[in-house]
TrEMBL record:
Domain of life, per lineage: Bacteria
Enzyme superclass (EC): transferase
Protein name listed in UniProt: nicotinate-nucleotide diphosphorylase (carboxylating)
SUPFAM superfamilies noted in UniProt: Nicotinate/Quinolinate PRTase C-terminal domain-like, Nicotinate/Quinolinate PRTase N-terminal domain-like
E.C. no: 2.4.2.19
Domain Quinolinate phosphoribosyl transferase C-terminal: 110-280
Quinolinate phosphoribosyl transferase N-terminal domain span: 23-108
GO molecular function: nicotinate-nucleotide diphosphorylase (carboxylating) activity
Pathway involvement of the protein, from the record: Cofactor biosynthesis; NAD(+) biosynthesis; nicotinate D-ribonucleotide from quinolinate: step 1/1
Length: 282
């Protein structure tokens, strides 16, 4: 969840990075009493996200700045559309401009890319989820943008759920069906009944050992489509079937058509391109 505390902290850090000792240009070139009116304009179409960041950036730059007509997160917009109006003391507006644009461009890029993946699987029941492949320090913002684009969030951190990957099983010495099942059942006993346990497999012959344990979901990693379909049939709704690896806008529909419940896509956050937005003076 994107709380005010998260927004405040992220903006404060970004402004401190961009103007650690003040905005030298604005302070020396712009009269203190001068005002300015600007528009946040889309140079290309997309899905909006980051309104809270825009508002908080200008508030911290100068609390007298007024933001009006701010687009709602999740709103679809066209090129040339005005996404917000920003007016107030020129020094504050100019100081906050780049930081506000950086946040908005980045988060709109994530929301827009997510919306394209969601649209590609709309004819199926599969959901598009993010991963932990996020920009350090910006995870809450980027996962919020994924939701704005119509996606869903995977676990936020290592503390949220158990995800057992191949290296975990290797470290435990789980090299065959019996030892894998035993290790996962012991994990369930330690974790308690309210904790989700997801187990990654990368081959069909690993599936039976995992399904024999009391787990919540199976992550089918880099499965060929035929094997993915067979895995879904074998799982038969007993746990959540999640696909990952090799997912692109060109392949996601075929993956969804195998019947998986969730498709996790690291590209939503680590591969999203910043959208082209500008702050134009009236």
């Amino acid at each position: 969840m994107l709380t005010q505390s998260i927004v405040d902290t992220a903006v404060r850090a970004a402004l401190a990075e961009d103007a650690p000792w003040g905005d030298l240009t604005a302070e020396l070139a712009i009269p203190a009493e001068l005002g300015i009116a600007t528009r946040l304009v889309a140079r290309e179409s997309g899905v909006f996200a980051g309104g809270a960041m825009v508002r908080e950036t200008f508030r911290q730059a100068d609390a007298r700045i007024e933001i009006t007509d701010l687009a709602e997160d999740g709103a679809v917009f066209a090129a040339g559309e005005v996404l917000a109006r920003v007016a107030g003391p020129a020094r504050g507006v100019l100081t906050g401009e780049r930081v506000a644009l950086n946040f908005a461009q980045r988060l709109c890029g994530v929301a827009t890319l997510t919306s394209r993946f969601v649209a590609a699987v709309a004819h199926t029941s599969a959901r598009i989820a993010d991963t932990r492949k996020t920009t350090p320090g910006l995870r809450a913002l980027e996962k919020h943008a994924v939701r704005a684009g119509g996606g869903v969030n995977h676990r936020f951190s290592l503390s949220d759920a158990i995800m057992v990957k191949d290296n975990h099983l290797a470290a435990l010495g789980a090299s065959d069906t019996a030892t894998t099942t035993r290790a996962l059942r012991l994990l369930r006993e330690r974790a308690g009944h309210t904790t989700a346990i997801i187990v990654e497999v990368d081959r069909l012959d690993q599936l039976d050992a995992v399904l024999a344990a009391d787990i919540t979901g199976v992550l089918l990693d880099n499965f060929p489509l035929d094997d993915l379909s067979m895995a879904v049939q074998r799982i038969a709704g007993s746990v959540v079937a999640e696909a990952s690896g090799g997912v692109s806008l060109e392949t996601v529909a075929s993956i969804a058509e195998t019947g998986v419940d969730v498709i996790s896509v690291g590209q939503l956050t680590h591969g999203a391109r910043a959208l082209d937005l500008g702050l134009d003076a009236d």
